[in-house]
Amino acid sequence: MISIKNLTFYYSGSDKPALRDINLEIEDGEFVLLTGPSGGGKSSLCRCLNGLIPHFYGGKITGKVEVNGLNVMKHSTKELATTVGMVFQDPENQLVAVDVDSELAFGLENLAFAKEVIARRVEEALDTVGIVSLRHRATSELSGGEKQRVAIASVLALYPDILVLDEPTSELDPKGAEDVLNVVERLNDELGITVILVEHRLDRVVAHSDRIVVLENGMITADGGPRSILGDGKVSQSGVGIPPIIKLVQAVKSKGNLIDNTPLTVKEGRMAMAEALRDSESFASRHSERVLRSPCHSERSEESHRSGQAPRPKNLNRARLHEESPLIEVKKLWHAYPEGFVAVKDINLSICPGEFVAIMGRNASGKTTLVKHFNGLLKPTKGDVTVAGINAKEATVAELARKVGYVFQNPNDHLFCDTVEEELAFTLNNLGVKGGEAEPLINQTLERFGLTQYRYQYPRFLSGGEKQRVALASILVAQPQIIILDEPTRGMEYRLKAELMKFLDEYRRECRAVILVTQDVEMVAEFSDRVVLLSEGKIVVDGPKREVLSHALLFSPQINRLAQALKNYGVPDDILTADEMIEELA
Amino acid sequence: MVSYKYSGKDTVIHRLNPWCKLAWIAGVCILALLFDSPVYLLLLSLSTLPVILAARVWKEWLSVMKFAFFLCLLIIVINALVSNQGSHVLYQFPFAIPIAGAPRITLEGILWGVGNSLRLLAIISAFTVLMFAIHPDDLMLAMVKAKLPYKSVMVTSLSTKFVPALIDDAQRIADAKKSRGLELDRGGRIQRVKSYASIAIPLLSNSLDRAVQVAEAMESRAFGSGQKRTFYKELKLSKVDITILSFVFFSIAFGVFLRCSGQGGYQYYPAVEAVSLTTSEWAVLFVLLLLVNAMPILALLKRKVSLD
């Protein structure tokens, strides 16, 4: 059992509390989802549970934290290791051994267990997490999801009663995340291990949790069962991403339909929606006529009533755009790395101004390799890439930087200057824009990204979302015609994601192209308009998102799965987002 | 691209006890330092090859050797320029340097460089086995068993583990900076230093972040709990291992004996002498080289035995 009383904590050197008057009791075997905006205190709270706060971090702490009767202030992290197992965000930085079985033995060796005990427990941990096949592999060769499962197994070998996971999936691709969450759920179900999971994306885990705790500004602002917390919609103001299905059902409810439950899974959502649609006969009859009139839904062009957003330039001026020359033209592109791995094969692709293209595909399917050709970071092994009329084969990265902005996933890779302003000036300076010419561009960009107040601050000390904005601003200050973002939303909370996407949508309206490398299906469903799906270096599908994402098995958004099941009630089966569905039902 | 890290191949050499490999490397180094004769050194260098081949790390070995060759070339050139002793003068520079006298290139100077390069090649070649054919965990365990403090050994092992991550980091950061129009090779010296700082600063602060995260993760798994640590893996010496070890020690002792009895010596200065070995000297030399290669031979035999 975990019992936290009046816990307040300040990091050393900070006069703003990271945690403020926290009171929380967690029963044995509970599955608690800890969520809230970044910088809200989730990680700090996790670190209080195994004594990293205060023993590792120092700082000022008051109140009481007890874990299975052990006072955390008096027992060190090492003593707590057999009670609380901790899994961290970054899979790269928590594995210390060369191969998997020695990784699992590491904690047990530190605690001086006898060799026979270690051998047995390593075996058990491998089995429990289902990674027996990895046991002799080198940890450096594993995928992110595998690494994270090894990390879980390595703390599990210590027989902890409580497992604390601090955003374990935020660095992983959807498949890796799924594997990790499956393991966590099973540990809770079958072994009764108390789980405290920090997570932004609720749709996948909410059905398994017993309780949701929302932390904001270091305080608990909501605490309760998932249905009650998500059902009343209040938490959405605090940046918690409400799963699309719940959003949908809430909207239906507000129209006066009686749905008594808040659905947590696609299945529950399907049943709730089916019931609601049966009740409102009018909808079904009204829509069945329309279905008869236009039987082929997937060929429907975007209808203005449907999009709910302002009409997009591409749809309005499709014909005109195609007369314009494309910004990027890829012809028979092949790329082989020096080691001999052929990453992209025979790619043909053209991207026009005003397009918002999502490049999707599994890990190592060639997504990043492909887009790195657009700004010259990679050169074609065979074939041609033309970017804004320039042959990318012959141009340097610096020459292409005027036309193409490339935003890397981790803003820390971009930032190095002393102030935010200098960060923007650096890019302009490199491109030969100096002094008086640069000033208005910098002001304008800072304004646009809401960064004016941070102008003279050290960028690396800003919060995650702000850093992302600075990184983006430092690219867009040069006003490139094409902007490429590589996995920009991985591990990002919903509110920041939505902000970023809104901005990109505005940007492409200025007749520029936005290219997104991503595996985030829900986001693509909501914001992009064309999807290029890669597999093993080849383009498998290239088309409007509606065509690609509906009827897909792996890459289909939650709402689309729901819509497909509700076909009989006259719901078009190519609906992708909650908003579209709400619009359709209205 | 050859990645400079342990590749975890499954060969007879990889499976050997690390003590055998460490002793063998030490043996080759001692012998290389013991003998001066270029013939001995050349044959010693070549006699490391069977181990490299048996460990199937020739690709890695080749890329290390490319670098080593370059190093040797440097040694030869510098020694030829700096050393002005020797009686066979090949080229006399037309000027004199105060105190040092008139520089000249002599045959002895060049040959001394060549001879010592051979010595270096033998040592580097042996060390590729350390790099590519000893499991880092085994190496760590051996170091701990040799009574080196565990924490220091762990830190050393960790820092080598994170080198590839650091290289990836640097590559990514450089790409990010290039995408913002940075041209690393442009401008004057000061400009270039600034350009590289834009990569070094994020690299450094990312590394510091990484260090804190790794420390946290280790702390959470009871690292340094104060108890005497146990080790899950063991370094058991099998009979074959002990046999190999004794052969290695014998080869060293035999080498010392040979050197003491006057074999394998060589003088470059003042004038190069002819290298001539008597039949019995050749025979003894080959026995020595055979002893050096007892490790791969026995390792292969061991596999034969264990297969039966």
Describe what you observe in this structure:
The complex is a heterodimer of chains A (586) and B (308). In chain A, 38% of the residues lie in helices and 20% in strands. In chain A, α9 (244-254) packs parallel to α10. Residues 289-321 of chain A have low confidence and may be disordered. Chain B has a domain at 12-146 and 237-307. Chain B is built from 13 helices and two strands; from the N terminus they run αααααββαααααααα. A two-stranded antiparallel sheet of chain B has the order 1-2. The longest helix of chain B is centred in the middle third of the chain and has 32 residues, at 189-220.
What does the secondary structure layout of this molecule look like, with pairings?
The complex is a heterodimer of chains A (586) and B (308).
Chain A: E1 2-10, E2 19-26, E3 31-35, H1 42-49, H2 52-56, E4 60-67, E5 70-71, H3 77-80, E6 84-87, H4 100-110, H5 115-129, H6 144-156, E7 162-166, H7 174-191, E8 194-198, E9 211-216, E10 219-224, H8 226-231, H9 244-254, H10 266-279, H11 281-293, H12 304-307, H13 313-316, H14 318-323, E11 328-336, E12 342-351, E13 356-361, H15 367-372, E14 382-387, E15 390-391, H16 397-401, E16 404-407, H17 420-430, H18 435-448, H19 464-476, E17 482-486, H20 494-509, E18 513-517, H21 521-527, E19 530-535, E20 538-544, H22 545-549, H23 558-565, H24 578-585
Chain B: H1 12-15, H2 18-34, H3 38-46, H4 49-54, H5 58-82, E1 89-92, E2 104-106, H6 107-133, H7 136-145, H8 150-161, H9 163-179, H10 189-220, H11 239-260, H12 279-292, H13 294-307
Antiparallel strand pairs in B: 1-2
Helix pairs in contact in B: 2-6, 2-11, 3-6, 5-6, 7-8, 9-10, 11-12, 11-13
